[in-house]
Amino acid sequence: MCKALLGINVGSLNPLSPFYGQTNSVRNLSTDPYLANHDSLALTLVGKVGIGDIDISEDADFLYFVNLYDKKLYKLDITGATPVWAASYDIPADCVAGTGDARPFGLKVKDGKVYIGSVCDAYNSQNTSDMRAYVYALDETLGTFSIVFDFPLTYPKGYPYSGFKSISTWNPWTDDFSDFIPAYSYPDLLYPQPLFTDIEIDLDGSLILGFGDRTAYQVGWQNFGTQSSDPKLYVGSGAGDILRAAYINGTYVLENNAYVAGLTGASPNNNQGPGFGEFYNDNYPLNGGVHTEIAFGALALKPGSGESIYTTMDPEYGGNSGGFRYISNTTGTTSPSVIGATLYQTVLGTTEPTFGKAAGLGDLELACSLVSFLEIGNYVWIDADADGIQDPTESGIPNVQVRLYDQSGLLVGLTTTDTNGEYYFNPTNVDNNGVNATTGAATVGYTGLAPNTQYFIVLGQSGTNTFNATNDVLNYNGNEYALTNVNTGEGSVPDQNDSDASLASGV
Fold first, then answer.
1. What Cα–Cα distance (Å) separates residue 433 from each residue in 32, 60, 402, 426, 507?
2. Of 1, 217, 224, 268, whose CA is between 20 and 30 Å from 327?
3. Residues 170, 157: contact at Cβ < 8 Å?
4. What angle do CA 89, 92, 93 make, to 5 degrees?
5. Cα(187)–Cα(225) distance, rounded to whole angstroms?
6. Which has the closest alpha carbon to 411: 435, 427, 430, 388?
7. d(CA 330, CA 136)
8. CA distance from start to end of the chain
């Protein structure tokens, strides 16, 4: 469809692709999707042709996708009846020369930026030290990418099966079927190869990184190998991963032995993650034992829930199944009472097109409205005893003008307290490009508050609601109110509930 409608070649196996002539009949393949095939060409092209991750801009006007074939990011205008090709950008390749190729896939559009996840596949060198993951951010104004985070893929992983605990690393990409390691009598084939398939961004700016297992896609479910003389039916078993990187003072820091930015994850010292521990528990069952890496690679996050959702094999307690799990972003654990859901279960010995344990699900998207989670407020009241603590008998002050300034002194929000003395700054009245000093109208459009940003709240400065800079007095409807005493408060830690308000000169 992309080729026919938009002129975008994603390299799929059809007459419009660069593999023209490689039809099913030429390759001696059945057209019945339920039948097994000896398909060596398809095995080599996994992660190299087609479309990777897809995301839609926060204003719902544009759709972005990663083209695995030409390694470009495409932007489509979807405001009309049919999509229109708006732009495309070459995704960087920062792999060591000669070691292999860059393989972009994951994608996230957030706060006006487009993030891309990519790996160095080490296909040529077959050296694990050459495998590396990158997160790029696109500045669409300049049309350029920058590296915002990167790390090696040499950390210890969990094993796909308990009987094969030595399979505990990522492997360089391979197109050689004989590299896959058979397990049990099916036989399952194990050989984790990294696909950087998804990115989510938490409230605190932390990155949640989803990795799929390329081998699971190459092998599939109850399919033949690449040699026509081999009559065995093989099944893949996904062994992806989920990682967390905290955003600290403008820099991303990868989890280390299950610890990240003051949080302790599910499994310190389990030898299954960076620093020999694992923040997110992706085991089956939850207490481990059978599979210790079960992620398929897709993620979703609803701000305010405190949890992520990820696709997985055997999400609950049924074998050869696929579905999703909920997982805490503060503890890395899954509640035994609310695990998630099984979306399919494949019967062993059949050729059902549900893929069993072998990555039978694509991406996750939330169909519910997202909460406006960043907000500043909320109360201006008469603090009769000047202790900074809101007492039940102390009433709010209505109709007080409240202004919000950024660190540079730019007015970015303007509102007035309601009849209860309450006020809020949120996506309905904050524009980080500036607002009109009289009406509060946005300069460009209301953007909402920026995360990890310092703002200043100023009272008065309009009409009868003015602030006297000499004695810090609010003149309100003929009455004068002084700021409450600073640094008083109550309880064992008074600094948590005292007032820090003062005259902010220069704002």
1. 57, 21, 18, 14, 17
2. 217
3. yes
4. 145
5. 11
6. 435
7. 25
8. 55
